[in-house]
Amino acid sequence: MKNYTTRQLDTMLTDSLSNAFGAPKNNIVILPGFCDVHVHFREPGFSYKETIKSGSLAAAHGGYTAVCTMPNLNPVPDTVERINKQLDIIKNDAVIDVYPYASITVEQRGEKISDLESMKDLCIAYSDDGRGVQNEEMMREAMIRAKKLGKMIVAHCEVDSLLFGGYIHDGLYCALNGMKGISSRSEWEMIARDIRLAKETGCPYHVCHISTKESVALIRKAKSEGVDITCETAPHYLVFNDMDIEDDGRFKMNPPIRDESDRLALVEGIKDGTIDMIATDHAPHSLEEKSQGLRNSKMGVVGLETSFSVMYTYFVKTGTITMERLIELMSENPRKRFGIEDNGYTVFDLNQKYTVNPDNFLSMGKKTPFEGHEVYGKCLLTVCNGKEVYKA
User: Fold this and answer.
1) Domains defined along the chain, listed by start
2) Residue 5 above 80 pLDDT?
3) Which of 26, 345, 348, 374 is deepest in the core (most CB within 10 A)?
4) Is the dihedral of CA 72, 297, 263, 375 positive or negative?
5) Phi, psi angle pair for 34, to nearest 5°
């Protein structure tokens, strides 16, 4: 593996950047462009929340040069015509490389499998993210077809019958405040089912945003048995537990922030390789939609512009993981698993401390649980496909 922590810019460029940004030369590092396999750019259909342009600018601001966009759009990308509508916008407006998912089922309704074959060359993989595929036979068929196409199934794992109207983790905070909880079982039970199906079919399988200790244990065991499985988690699940949350929409996402024992299991998972990558699940909503407390706000928070700084501050600077491991999680592993080539680099001043202020985001979404946190690592420059796409 390349040692990116000691990889320095050549002297001339380092001097130039140091002068341009007023940063000491030994603070400046060049890193491979990050890759996020789980974002929501909301276009077409919900451009009042985010657009391809604003989302990709936000990604560039965070050091990303490639992202994969989820299919909960209008229209849902479940046909060639519909996915091409999204691709046209990407071609015209994206400042970085954007790879769309096609939906596993028509309209993401879980009633009929989409025409996976016709969209094979237009999508990065198949997902119904935001909704778990409830029918086991349907998921088995989807895996069999995806396997034949050489494509991956990427799953939001959630058993609908176990939700009971919940909107935060079914833990101590929930009980103390008289709220409705989402059980951990609703996540890990579907992961267990899908592991069994992936083992049976041989389909490459990726689990979205895991949040529970049981999920970590199941995936660790599946890997030891040779199942073709990878998974991701997000920074907010690694930093917060459910007693850290407030009755504010910026703490509401799905899956929810879990118990401290879950958080610790996730941290162990990024240390021992069970968790393959960090994804943000960047999911912007309008200010009105996110300003109605935990009960009534929409689920979803933004994360592209804080992900590296948060991970560097809370996990590299503390010695929990190395910088090399963080680059594996944020760039190398997602690119390798999803077949996305290196396409640029990003430059950070690792010693520059700043307070997370959503007013400075390029995303249209402003709700982040990290608002007010002091973090290290400021993005100075992002270059994608030879073009400067962000400069501080």
Assistant:
1) 34-342 (3.20.20.140)
2) no
3) 348
4) positive
5) -75, 160
- Res. 317: pLDDT tops 80: yes
SS3 annotation, the chain:
CCCCCCCCCCHHHHHHHHHHHCCCHHHEEEEECEEEEEECCCCCCCCCCCCHHHHHHHHHHCCEEEEEECCCCCCCCCCHHHHHHHHHHHHHHCCCEEEECECCEHHHCCCCECCCHHHCCCCCCEECCCCCCCCHHHHHHHHHHHHHHCCCEEECCCCHHHCCCCCEECCHHHHHCCCCEECCHHHHHHHHHHHHHHHHHCCCEEECCCCCHHHHHHHHHHHHCCCCEEEEECHHHHHCCHHHCCCCHHHCCCCCCCCHHHHHHHHHHHHHCCCCEECCCECCCCCCCCCCHHHHCCCCCCCCCCHHHHHHHHHHCCCCCCHHHHHHHHHHHHHHHHCCCCCEEEEEEEEEEEECCHHHCCCCCCCCCCCCCEEEEEEEEEEECCEEEEEC
pLDDT digits over 116-166, tens only?
A: 999 999 999 999 998 999 999 999 999 999 999 999 999 999 999 999 999
pTM over 0.90: yes
Instruction: Give exposure, 107-139, as e/b (b: 16+ Cβ within 10 Å).
Output: ebebeebbebeebbebbbbbbbbbbbbbeeebb
- Encoding tokens for residue 168? 């935060």
- State whether the Cα torsion 60-64-66-69 is positive or negative: negative
Length of the chain: 392
Distance (Å, whole) CA 46 – CA 73:
7
Which residue is it, tokens 């046209």?
88
Residues 6+ apart with CB under 8 A from 336: none
Of 97, 102, 100, 140, give the one whose Cα is nearest residue 118. 102
Instruction: Sort 204 into a burial class: Cβ within 10 Å, 0-12 / 13-18 / 19+.
Output: buried
* Residues catalogued as catalytic: 281
At 58, the amino acid letter reads: A
Q: Is the pLDDT of residue 350 over 90?
A: yes
Degrees to nearest 5, angle at CA 392 with 44 and 363: 25
